[in-house]
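Example 4.3 (complexes with small molecules)
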Amino acid sequence: MNKLLKQLVEIHGPSGFEYQVRTLIRAEIEPFADDVSIDAMGNLIAVKRGSGDGLKIMIAAHMDEIGVMVSHISKEGFLRFTNIGGVFPLNILGSRVQFADGTIGVIYCEMKGFPKNALPLDKHFIDVGASSKEDCPIQVGDAGTFKREFVAQGNRLTAKSMDDRTGCYIAIETLKALQDTPHDVYFVFSVQEEVGTRGAQAAANGILPDVGIAVDVTATGDLPESRRLAVDLGQGPAIKVKDKGMIAHAGLVRAMRDCAEEANIPYQLEVLEMGSTDARSMQIAGPGSAAGCLSIPCRYVHSQSETVDADDVKNAVKLLTALLANPMTL
Ligand code: CO
Ligand code: ZN
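Answer. The structure with zinc ion bound is encoded below.
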């Protein structure tokens, strides 16, 4: 498990530049799918055809991660940048970013003395070791992601981009485990989720699924003084009931809960007051679909040390596989 997950989280895939992730996942899933394609936006779509008269189900896990895009290079060779997705100034001072060609940069901010408060992103710059615009290996428009290695300590797995390579991992393993299904299942590894669930929207408009299930991380409520949220790390995958962008289909929530209970898989119910996922896009694409989300509890989301629990990941694979292997009544 950790070998594939480590590979998935350590590579570079900011929104709009997911090709390294796509190449890795494609090689991993090709032997298990009936059909694999890439659409115009870059979504990777693997189809597992059903044996009966089941539903058309789309599973979405996003390949992209948050990052930075270079907007200006000074004559001294310092890069200014804009955010790709939710990048918080508190999380980035002294961080390393990696660009697609392997160049590493250090993020720092304008200051005299030690910084007391986090400054806005436009007061930050990236140092890639250049001394002028001319010898800078990076250009305006190049995108970088944070550089952090994967760490496994017991059941706790920490890395950048657990959001949402954990979801990609779960979708990959579910496709591998799914022997027979009555449904036509479209596993979509989506692009550009972090900038507004754009890839899944295009894919869902093409596929027009009856049911859409996103697999993505969610926050936890188990940290000191954290917000009231009934999701704890290690207590099972969470079945989303509501977030800021979507109310999950009640029949699908029921079907997911029944499936977990029958298979003796622990689960939690998630009501999140912020955020959303690809489920929102699938819900309102085309004539609409019955949409929901299987969430992986994750601490420190959108930091470089996003942390999940290995048992939650394994149980999510079990739950999704059992759900897809059986007929579904909504
Ligand atoms: Co995210
Ligand atoms: Zn995500």
